[in-house]
Amino acid sequence: MSTESMPRTVIWWGVAITLAGGLLVATAPHALTAWWGVNTAEWSAATAAFEVVLAIARTTLAPLGAALIAAGLVMHYVDRRLRGDRIADRPHRWRFPSAEEAER
């Protein structure tokens, strides 16, 4: 993966993970009850374990996707600033004023 395509890739991964987290939040409870009918104690234990995994995934996927989107946007902004051709596009460096400049 080249450095030019990395921000775009991170943004698309963020979008995909956010959408997957949203779909999981919306459909997981219904899919779990439709897919597994809790008839026996074994299925009940499997359903409980699967619900724990789904709860962890539901609470982490959407924020992770949003963080990846933000990171991709920051990478894109920093790359554009560092690659600027005009002097106004380059990052500004600040320095402490000398004693003479401070007295003026």
Shape: elongated
Provide the low-confidence segments as ranges: none
Share in helix? over 70%
Kindly state the number of beta strands.
Answer: 0
Give the number of helices.
3
Distance between the termini: 51 Å
Give the C-alpha Rg. Answer: 24 Å
Oligomeric form? single chain
Mean pLDDT across residues: 80
Largest sheet: none
State which percent range the strand residues make up.
under 5%
Q: Briefly note the structural class of the backbone.
A: mainly alpha
SSE order in H/E notation? HHH
What does this structure look like?
The longest helix is centred in the middle third of the chain and has 42 residues, at 41-82. The mean pLDDT is 80. The N and C termini lie far apart (51 Å). It is built from 3 helices and no strands. By secondary structure, it is an all-alpha fold. It has a domain at 14-81.
In short, what is this structure?
The chain is mainly alpha-helical.
Observed structural traits:
104 residues; mainly alpha; 3 helices
Detail the topology: elements first, then pairings:
Layout: H1 6-35, H2 41-82, H3 99-103
Helix pairs in contact: 1-2
